[in-house]
Please model this.
Amino acid sequence: MAGSVRIRNLHKSFAGQEVLHGIDLDFAAGSVTVILGPSGSGKSTLLRCINHLESPDAGYVEVGDEIVGYRRDGHRLRERSPREVARQRSRIGMVFQQFNLFGHQTAAQNIMEGQLASGVPSDQARKRASELLARVGLAGRENAYPSALSGGQQQRVAIARALATDPDLILFDEPTSALDPELVGEVLAVIRDLADSGITLVIVTHEIGFAREVADKVIFVDHGRVVESGSPAAVLDHTENDRARTFLSAVL
Amino acid sequence: MPLLTAATPSVRRREVAAPADDLGQAALVGRRRPLQWVVAIAGVVVLAMLVNTLLTNPRFEWQVVGDYLFSNAILRGLVLTLWLTAAVMVSGYLLGIAVAALRLSDNAVLRSVSFGFVWFVRSVPPLVQLLFWFELASLYPRLSLGIPFGPEFVSVQTAHLLSAVAAAYVALTIDVAAFASEIIRGGILSVDRGQTEAADSLGLSRARTFRRVVLPQAMPAIIPASGNLLIGMLKATSLVSVIAVQDLLGATELIYNDNFKVIPLLIVATLWYLLLTSLLSVLQFGLERRFSRGTRRADRPSLPAVWRSNLPVFPHRRPRAGR
Model:
């Protein structure tokens, strides 16, 4: 299936410090996975390895039937050209903690940019941008610059932008952590609407209630290792792991 | 009560007799600014002295200034200054973008080449570089194109290759490229890394990311410094008068070497440089407004509004976004 994810033996170090110590994970196509863990546990790095914003030191990530960032070359994995990586990334959306909307472009232009890059004609891209803005509850805000939008609105534009290239998979890196508390709900509502869309969602978040409600699978990462993995009920309510229990009692 | 206060008229109109103990109803007025008056009067006196000397000192010879201001020789020099500046800035910036790109590349060899180029060009005075290019023929009488240490395909006399104007063009282009590359590099580094990551995650190619995402947002940091460089270069082209190129200054020199009217002719050159620099400043202001789209500075006041706000006779508030 197009949106399935397979992670095998993933290792990553920064300046000699190993952040990921061999991760093995599988996410089914169309599933919703929530990744929990204390800060510094490596969950963001894990997410960024999936679309090759970080390149692994060992192991690989497979999305659909393609290894991201590498191609098989006999028994080696050979780095792909930037053009091929860009093509792979256009099938993987990403939503950032700090939104990262293009500040010099309007909401519509932000949503059009990825489509234009993959050759969609501009009138078609504009039409799709308007549809997507309506879908995230921002109909009519095509010409608003990010600086004129609230954090919650910016993040919804960012989600629309990630949807614009019809990805099989969307990665959310703490999408509500930079938001004022009263704006968290509107962003989670938009993500909730995507849960049954057939797009695979992988969400790093601290919103435990949200995880319980929408996740098919919850992963708990600590010190660069997957220490718990299973249904929301199993991980959130019946964890045997001490680290996970301490963390959950702190954030709940 | 001073005439110049920061209080808005609407506040002043509500100035009604309030009970002494009810300060909640009191009129809010600006603080007194006596120093503003002192400075204004001193400024008027200095201005009057300046106007007086300009009008009464016969050695300014305004008649001569008027005679030469629009003379053909001066206008020809002016045209050369203008197109040399334009040509040097365009080619210098194209080269500068390339040098900045090399400096930011992953390739250590290219980074070193870029660093070495900028180090060398910034270290040698532009006048020295200009003379080197002008005297290139005495260093390399022939230039040839071929395989290094191997056969030559084409060979030309260097003296035929570089006229004085061409030497000026090459030397100044290289000078602009070195400074422009640093300005551009600074601008690129000022753009948040998250912007590039977002572009990467959308599958934009590196060239497209640079052109559509990074460069437009680097412009607010690039324009003010580039305006500086452009105005500096407009004046630095006067260096070429040293190698007998008839630019604006070269043309005036030629005339006053003949008629000894040094001061009036230098005033002619000064007036033209003042006019050109003022026009370029207006252009820069417009560009800064245009590239502040999407930022909080986008609602900056127009140029006339900024000027008015700097003159005390107009009771406008100084705009917070003004320069």
Remarks:
- The longest helix of chain B spans residues 72-103.
- Chain B has one domain: 59-291.
- Chain B is about 65% helix and 5% strand.
